Amino acid sequence: MAYGQTGSGKTHTMFGPPGIMTRAANADYGLEPTADYGLYPRGVLDIVNRVRELNDSGTTFNYVLVASAVEIGIFGKVDMLVQAESGGGEVDWNELETKHDQCGVQLDRVAEPKYLYGQTEVNLHDEDRNIYRTFAAIATRNTMGTGMNNSSSRTCCFAAFLTLYCHDSNTDCVRKSRFQFVDLAGSERLKDAHNGNTNYRTNMHDANFMAGYCNNWCLMQLSRCVRELVQYRRQGSRGHFSFNSYLVDLVFMLSESLVGSAHTAIFVCLSQAPRNNMQSSVALDFGEVFSKLSIRPSANKWKKKAKLKLQAAATLTGAKAALGNAERSSGGAARNKHVPKRRAQIVMSRQLLDVLKQFG
After folding, report:
1. Which of 20, 31, 101, 324 could connect to 16 by a Cys-Cys bridge, CB 3.0–4.6 Å?
2. How far apart are CA 4 and CA 271, in angstroms?
3. 6 is annotated as contributing to ligand binding
């Protein structure tokens, strides 16, 4: 995870310099890591090679590696693989807010752990072209120039996921692990970034301004959660910590890192400009507080493949039936807020069944 003010190098750290993912998607570098690659492309290539080695090792374990990418904004969540293959371009967040059926990705805030579902997943372990597809998805992220950064993220965060399924043929069980690469939005001084404008009431129709305003709000919620969680543990509380008072999806998506059940590395990026000393101090303070979170990582449990197939099939059947009822009762998909959830469940179930099918 990369954290810091706008223009401090978060995206460079996570993915590489501007334009590199477009060139990578065009196969300019092939499938070998280049010196300018950030953490994600290096991680993808290394993990893909390792998974292929494990699958060729002749053990009782077989692996399937899938990738997805999601951009989270204040008005919704965008499947970046779909966005890239529809021609890319800037997401119309106002349209996304009013047309709920376009929000293909959903967040389950009730499940433990919390997770995103409904996003497109592509196999990486046996199809090289899908590696290029994930690079293309990253290249279409939503950016815009401001007074502080000529390529500033206009969403709360960009998350790229690698999900690894391991099947043990001796026990016919499956275990799932997730690698999560998160490029957080950068905090920005609205006055400097938007030509002296700081009042959201008079700038509500300026999408660029509102994106910066909402990004600051999301980061404030994250900082508040980290500080309250540290205090909660310091008081000796070991029970369940509720995230329900935090109003942004970002906090829920990072919940495993925050409660310490997942291994997490955070890169705090700083500006070298003297005028940004205050923002650098704030970023360092966040990193210091984050380092005080309790770390208790635990491996995911093995589950019977047959049981997973039954559960996925039941979810698929139920979601299809519920989707049909919702569309009929509302007179159209766009009018029913439950339709996106059902569609996402259908996508999730089908993709899981496809993965399990690869294990025989």
Report:
1. 20
2. 8
3. yes
Residue 242 marked in a binding site = no
**What CATH number should be reported for the domain holding residue 259?**
3.40.850.10
Tell me what pLDDT residue 344 has: 94
Last residue of a domain, one of 279, 301, 323: 301
Which residues are 116's β-sheet partners? 107
The helix/strand count (H/E) of the chain reads as 13, 12
This prediction's pTM: 0.86
Could you tell me the pLDDT band of residue 198, with boundaries at 50, 70 and 90?
Answer: low
**Residue 77 is labelled as binding a ligand:** no
Does 5 belong to an annotated binding site?
yes
Site of tokens 């053990």: 59
Closest residue by Cα to residue 102 from 124, 79, 85, 86: 79
* Residues 190 and 327 placed together within one structural domain of the fold: no
Same domain, 165 and 180: yes
pLDDT tens digits for range 90-146: 555 445 444 434 457 999 998 888 899 999 999 998 889 999 999 999 988 765 555
Q: Is 320 annotated as a binding residue?
A: no
| 4 in a labelled binding site | yes
